[in-house]
């Protein structure tokens, strides 16, 4: 009778200890498959340490300070050239000084009751709601409760 939970392995006839058929784990193993996404010449740098955010920010500030000092020295020595009369400090983008323009995507609206996205607005109270079941709740609210929900969102409109 085979052992519980699997098949019995057959011992090889030549007396060696390696089985003729690989086990299921060996058949499903990805250990010896080629890995084309890995660089075969890669060697890990054992001296590299990870840096926390505080270290990254302090190094960035130090680099910016050194760059400003270098530009100031060039200006004093007269070796730097002003292009188009540019006298002011130029902003070098860094980790701490990146400014992004406003988004071109429309602002998302969220349900005042559930916090889910709200494609609908109740015309009488001005509350935003997610679906029909929430609309039933919005209809049953008193005007003072509706005003409280609106004030929580930061809207001070008059509820009709």
Description:
The protein is flat. It contains 4 helices and 2 strands. The protein is mainly α. Among the domains are: 51-95, no CATH class; 108-160, no CATH class. The protein has a two-stranded antiparallel sheet with strand order 1-2. The mean pLDDT is 80. Strand 1 (120-121) and strand 2 (128-129) form a beta hairpin.
Summarize, please.
This protein is mainly α.
Task: Please state the overall shape, judged from the principal axes of the Cα atoms.
Answer: flat
Unreliable spans are none
Q: In what range is the share of β-strand residues?
A: under 5%
What portion of residues is helical?
A: 25-40%
Summing up helix and strand content along with how strands pair, one would put the structural category as mainly alpha
| Secondary-structure element series | HHEEHH
User: How far apart lie the N and C ends?
Assistant: 82 Å
Reading side by side through the largest sheet, how are the strands ordered?
Answer: 1-2
Kindly state the number of beta strands. 2
Supply database-style keywords.
31% helix, single chain, 2 strands, two-stranded antiparallel ribbon, 160 residues, flat, mainly alpha
In terms of topology, how is this protein built?
Layout: H1 24-28, H2 53-77, E1 120-121, E2 128-129, H3 132-140, H4 143-153
Antiparallel strand pairs: 1-2
């Amino acid at each position: 009778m085979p052992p519980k939970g699997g098949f019995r392995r057959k011992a090889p006839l030549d007396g060696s200890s390696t089985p003729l058929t690989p086990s299921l784990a060996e058949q499903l193993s990805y250990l010896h498959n080629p890995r084309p996404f890995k660089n075969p010449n890669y060697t890990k740098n054992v001296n590299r340490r990870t840096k926390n955010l505080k270290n990254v920010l302090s190094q960035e500030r130090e680099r910016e300070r050194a760059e400003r000092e270098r530009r100031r020295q060039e200006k004093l020595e007269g070796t730097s050239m002003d292009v188009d009369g540019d006298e002011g400090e130029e902003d070098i983008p860094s980790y701490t000084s990146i400014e992004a323009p406003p988004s071109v995507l429309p602002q998302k609206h969220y349900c005042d009751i559930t916090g889910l996205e709200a494609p609908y607005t109740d015309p009488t109270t001005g509350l935003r709601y997610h679906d029909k079941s929430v609309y039933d709740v919005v209809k049953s609210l008193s005007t003072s409760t509706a005003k409280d929900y609106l004030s929580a969102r930061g809207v001070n409109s008059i509820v009709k």
